[in-house]
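Two proteins, back to back. First:
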Amino acid sequence: MLQGRVSTIFFSVSITIMVGWLFYVGKAIILPIVTAIILLQILYAASATVARIPGLGRSPLWLRATLALIAVILMLFAMIRMLVASLQTLVPSLPRYQSNLENLFSTWFAVSSNADALKPNLSDMMSSPAMMFDRGSEAIANGVSQFANRLLTEVDIAALAQAILSSLTSFGGFLFITILYASFMLSEITGFPDKVRRAFGGDTEAKNTLNMITRINHDIGSYLATKTLINIILGVICWIIMVSLGVEYAALWAIIIGLLNYIPYIGSIVGVAFPALFAVAQFGTLTVPLIATGLMTAAQVIIGNVVEPRMLSKSVNLSPMVVLVSLSVWSTLWGIPGAILAVPFTTILMIVLAGRKGTKPIAALLSSDGRV
């Protein structure tokens, strides 16, 4: 009995490692397909909204999903066009931003021109703790100043922005392939239940599989559709805050905040850090950036702790610790796309495990309340 359990654990761990290696090596092929499946689940949930439009309530599912896909394509096209336009206008402003940062650092950490003043007198320092503190503070200030000046002079910010533009172009190609996959999957959605019945043969097995797929579509689609709405609300609020305070390229930062908010826990922090740092470079002071950061952080806290729990409810019943571990695993395998898809992937895994009697206890451990 013990030997059988050890063998089961060994094979399970081995298969998990092999699958992880396959996902890592085959990222270029697997990621667009998986993203297309996730997009199809979003369209499945959005088709219910399309059904509320007068005249489309009794339309077939494939037609409503197609209309939702067209709306998603138009929204993505507008977003990418806005990002590219913002980045293209941002590049000429980078020298001014760099000059503001240099002036700010030189004001904060002025390097003493008197080299002899930096040489400490050991006997005086030992007899005066205040002098020791002053010498230490001055040494730290000079070190930070030298590091900042070296960073600002050696890092080519314009080249960095051009690299971001190139990455954005590659992202556009990735979206094209993903939407193409989703379109072909959408064309087969009506005949998919019959395929499942023929594949599994038995009515019970086919019914259980279809029920599991329906639950995955409902839970993942509802989560992503609601999360998208929440991110849009957050992006609009942050855009209003930045426009009111005169922060440049507010639309660009609002889109970045909305996209990064898909990543649990750390996404909201990183999203606010981008406009805060660039606001420091724009104004050359800390007053406006601190006000903007405080207001946007307050908006993040209110939406994350009040609005989001009420809107998402129990659409994903995952343990916070499991979410954190899955975030680490998938971000290691697939980077930012993996971090965004960590929650949907883990939810799908939990639903699949809950559909089998032998693996249902594992699904209960992955959930937040044990109810699967």
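And the second protein:
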Amino acid sequence: MTLRPHTFRHQLIIALLGFVLLAELLVTIAILHRTYEQRVNQARDTLQVADRVLDELMALRADQLLSTVSILASDYGFKSAIATQDEPTQRTVLRNFGNRAQADLAMLADPAGGLTTLVPRTQPNASALPFQDVLEGARRLGSATGLVMVDKRPYQFVIAPVNAPRLIAWIGMGFAINADIARNLASVTGVNVEFIVREGTRELYRTGPQSRDTPPDMLRSAEAFLVDEHSLFDSGATRLDVALSLTRDTVLSPYYDLASSLSLVFVITVAVSALVAMGLARRLSQPVRDLSEFAESVAAGHYHEPPSAQGIGELDVLTDALNDMQHAVRQRENRIRHQATHDALTGLLNRSAVRDVLYRRMNAGERLTLVRVAIHDFSRINGALGYRLGDEVLKTVAGRIKTICNTTHTLGRIEGNDFLALVADTDDDNASQRLIDALRSQVEQPVYLQSTSIQMRLEIGVVRVPEHAADIEAAWRRTVIARNGSRQHRCATFVYKPGMDEAHQRELAIIQGLAPGIERGELSLVYQPKMALASADIHQVEALARWVHPELGAIAPDEFIRLAERSGQIRLVTEWVVARIAEDLARWQREGMKLGVAINLSADEIAQTALDETLAPVFAAAGDGQLITLEVTESALLREPDTALQNLRALQSRGARISVDDFGTGYSSLAQLKQLAPDELKIDKSFISQLADTPADQFIVDLIIDLGHKLGLDVVAEGIETASAWRYLSNKGTDLMQGYFLARPMPAAELGAWFADHQANLGRWLDRAADRKTRA
């Protein structure tokens, strides 16, 4: 069986086995750890016992040796040999007694401690005892024992006096500390014993490990697990150490046996647990698997009765929950499907659903009339009544349209207050017109909400498919164009005309290309001079933006400025214009040309709260605010008059001049003109072009000049293209002139040369003015 943890059955098996394994592992670890500690502690106790046994063994041997020496010291014949200085007899007696006592060394010394006899004689020239410390102890105590070094070998030595009755000699015997002692100790304690003689850090002698059960060769190769090493004797030059040790096998053999037994138990337990876990998992996983397959089928949209839980209580609860979920999912799916294709406010088809229907019917080759309906000036209704009542108006209008459209019509709310009806063309050519007439007569009836009567007017645009559009995108776009045409024609029903889409596409191209065009340097700035008629001096130029589109060619400023305002890009244009003017102003001042600049401001720009900040670079470059003239139209002042007046007054306080552009064509009142308090009036060029031959234009121009002068304002005439117009305006006292008769708009780079030429020929203009006065 391959365990895959992502299945419930295998997860259950893994969980059960994991629990058993963890429990068994923890118990095994605890037992083995405890056993290990017990064996190590017992081994340490064994080493301590062996150390005490060593001490007792050494003490017992010392007592035995001392008894033998005492017997020899009491022997009359030995005393006589000492007294007569019979050295052969002394040596024979020492050897015989030493053999009986199994001593490795026997000696005889005079009362002063001088060595007389040593058996076996390892030092032929020895004259003094090599163990003065033991002798000094015997002098104090009568007899003494101790450890000594003879030829760098350790011995346990005893010394006793020979009295007859006074002290006539000292007798001593010693046992070698060798492998025999280590073996005896190991046989008693079961501990490996080693005697080590060291001289400083250098090892001189080692007896080798001894064990009761292990041959010496094997012991030497065995690894010592626990070692207790300490010093028995230190003469200063040499030192005798004893090392008591136990091998790993000796200490941990029971531990290893227990570990083997526990491992076997562990394997058996795991095997039994695995069988139990697989059986239990099979018992529990099958219902879960059935319920999982049931849930997957519900997720796939297949609804049926849930499987049985086989009497398992919790799974029965889960089965009921899944069944309830199935019903809830089915209801929610129906609701979502409806919401995906219907408008939540009106219950009509939404934009996506209407497009799908239109796409299918156009692909099927049907002939359709698309009637797009919008509530005229609906934003005013929302603003006056609020969005809640605005929604009520939408629902009322949607209900009325729905009652007019029959089941053969597809009707939907496609955006905001726009509705679209798809009317199938039949043999009855008047079907769509009757629908439109019914919409006019019924939907445009007043709507009464909260005691308020709201009069409805409809904008209706008509597009015929495939006559006006061959694909859905074109058809959809042209319904917008037709609806806009209805708005522009005062809500009259408007049928799309071929060619209108091209104008719409042109506007889109201009709007979409404006920002990239600024970045690519397609826009440029030209300047048209203004001349004071009295002195012929040039004090100011008007900045005019030009745009040469790479595909559309030259675009009129009125066109792209209007579209920039509509698309919210006018500030981008203004910032670009301001930056260019600031650069040119700074350059003219460096060249010694003190020229002012007139800047045209649109309605959106005047209403901006950050207008002062936008124009700051121009004021900084000019230095003198009076060099800046801001030209605004009368209609621009009507957009947001309070904000516009506030902004313009703030700019006037910085020295800027305010000029009312295109004066005479707008709708501002004299009271508003008084509030604005401008510095000049600019006569619109429509009154100038036919001025010499049109008495009506002359009358209007005379009134504007007279009004401006009586208000203390300068009067500027623009669009002067003929000498007759110039002479007329000069005779009437116009202060400034601008037009092709004086100069065409020119780039900043050409303005310096033109300005110098004008100054050089200033007399020509003054002569003309004098001639004009003479003829007048």
